[in-house]
Amino acid sequence: MPGKNVYFLSDAHLGSKLLKDNRQREARLVAFLESVRDECGELYLLGDMFDFWFEYKHAVPKGHVRFLAELARFSDEGVKVHFFTGNHDIWAFGYLSEECGVLLHDRQEEITMNGKRFVVGHGDGLNPRDKGYLFIRGVFHNRFLQRCFRWIHPDCGIALANAWSSHSRLQGNGQIEADAFQGEDKEEIVDYCKRYLQGRHVDYFIYGHRHYPIDLPLGNGCRYINTGDWITHFTYAVFDGSDVALRRYASSSGPFPAPSNP
User: For a disulfide at 208, which of 46, 71, 139, 226, Cβ 3.0-4.6 Å?
Assistant: First the structure.
């Protein structure tokens, strides 16, 4: 919408059994959304907003009602809400679009806004050499196996999912493994962006998944921006029609500086 901002955020992991402040983080997230709703033209949720999400035929995971209600309110007021599935909330099929009005994306997208070209997505599965992760990712995306999982009673299925999630890099104190910039030559998403740029131009790559806020120039006016998370950093990106800024909610710290190689 002309004169409105576009917001990007990711990785709230709402409902994580390893974190004890789910209700407080949800309230903080909802308060942020309420604070920007009037000036928001589009909202991009870049994956892992839930620590686990699976839609059975007649059931969805309980909780998150305040967050879901806010998404519905955005949609009801004509704000486009783009929901990108991450590696924790892969199994979003129809409920979120039918009940909350969001636009579901199960892969990254290349979009143009106000003459600027964006590549946006969750950010997982971008390393072609990580065969183990790509295999597991393929299993989780397999439609036949998804239908099979639906035959498991929700109480058991959700318990299994929570047990799996507890083995992820999410730690009980809210900290994340590799919770610092590793240098351009060691960041998988940076490597992917540079390969993607060969022979084409992109103004902004915006991803989540990494759980660390990053604003990194890649040359020729291109920047890689990671939205961080809503566990430790409470960060988001905003496009005002001319530029993208990375910001922290309820903080006067302003834009983040670009990281440098250690």
Answer: 46
β-sheet bridge partners, residue 217 = 223
Model confidence pLDDT, tens digit, residues 92-132: 788 899 999 999 998 999 999 999 999 999 998 676 566 55
Q: How far is CA 8 from the centre of its chain?
A: 8
CA distances from 182 to 46, 136, 196, 257 (A): 22, 25, 20, 15
Judge contact between 227 and 235, C-beta under 8 A.
yes
H-helix or E-strand spanning residue 217: strand 213-219
Would you state the pLDDT for residue 160? 67
Arithmetic mean of pLDDT, 149-174:
63
Distance CA 122, CA 50 (A): 13
CB atoms within 10 A of CB 176: 20
Identify the residue whose tokens are 């999400």.
53
Q: Which CATH architecture has domain 5-248?
A: 4-Layer Sandwich (3.60)
48 Cβ partners below 8 Å, 6+ apart? 10, 11, 12, 13, 86, 87, 88, 89, 122, 208, 209
Domain boundaries, the chain: 5-248
What value does the mean pLDDT take over residues 240-258? 74
- How far is 51 from 49, CA to CA, in rounded Å? 7
| pLDDT of 149 strictly over 70 | no
The amino acid that residue 34 corresponds to is: E
- Is the C-alpha dihedral spanning 77, 69, 109, 247 positive or negative? positive
Query: Is-contact 83 68, C-beta < 8 A?
Result: no
